[in-house]
Amino acid sequence: MPHPRPGPDDDAEGLGPGLPDDSGLQRQAAEIVGAVAAWYTAGIAELRRAVRSGSATDDDVQQLQAARREAVDDLERLENGLDDTEAASLVRRYADMLRELTGG
Q1: Which residues, 6 or more positions from 46, have their beta carbon under 8 angstroms from its beta carbon?
Q2: Which of 10, 14, 28, 57 would suit a FRET pair with 99, their CA atoms being 20 to 30 Å apart?
Q3: What tens digit of pLDDT does each residue of 20-70 get?
Q4: Is 16 helix (H, G, I), strand (E, B) or coil?
Q5: Which of 50, 40, 23 lies closest to 94 in space, CA to CA?
Q6: Which residue has the higher pLDDT, 11 or 89?
Q7: Per-residue pLDDT at 33
Q8: What is the mean pLDDT of residues 89-98?
Q9: In angstroms, how far is CA 83 from the centroid of its own chain?
Q10: How many CB atoms are located within 10 Å of the residue 16 CB?
């Protein structure tokens, strides 16, 4: 039976080692971390436009770029394989982050 993908309204606190199986957990983590990286990518583009209009600063862009870099680094860690505990931790952390970013 497939496991639901986390979304902005999902409660990721119940996830833990072994739930769901390793390959499903790795995939779930990659999807949610990727969603956060995509949010940052869109935000960077929006802030760059705002910098040109004078309503944002280069520092604002750099902050989002650093956050996106962290998400991309975590995606790379996932590609190299994480144990269930680490993958579950990423799912929880990024699910919370995605809720916060999207106002969910």
Answers
A1: none
A2: 57
A3: 445 688 899 999 999 999 999 999 999 999 999 999 899 999 999 999 999
A4: strand
A5: 40
A6: 89
A7: 96
A8: 95
A9: 18
A10: 13
Amino acid at 21: D
Q: What CA–CA distance (Å, rounded) separates 56 from 30?
A: 31
Sign of the alpha-carbon dihedral angle for 79, 82, 88, 94: negative
73: pLDDT strictly greater than 50: yes
Q: What does 32-61 look like in DSSP terms, one character per residue?
A: HHHHHHHHHHHHHHHHHHHHHHTSS-HHHH
Helix, strand, coil percent content, the chain, rounded in steps of 5? 75, 0, 25
pTM over 0.85: no
| Interatomic CA distance for residues 6 and 31, integer angstroms | 9
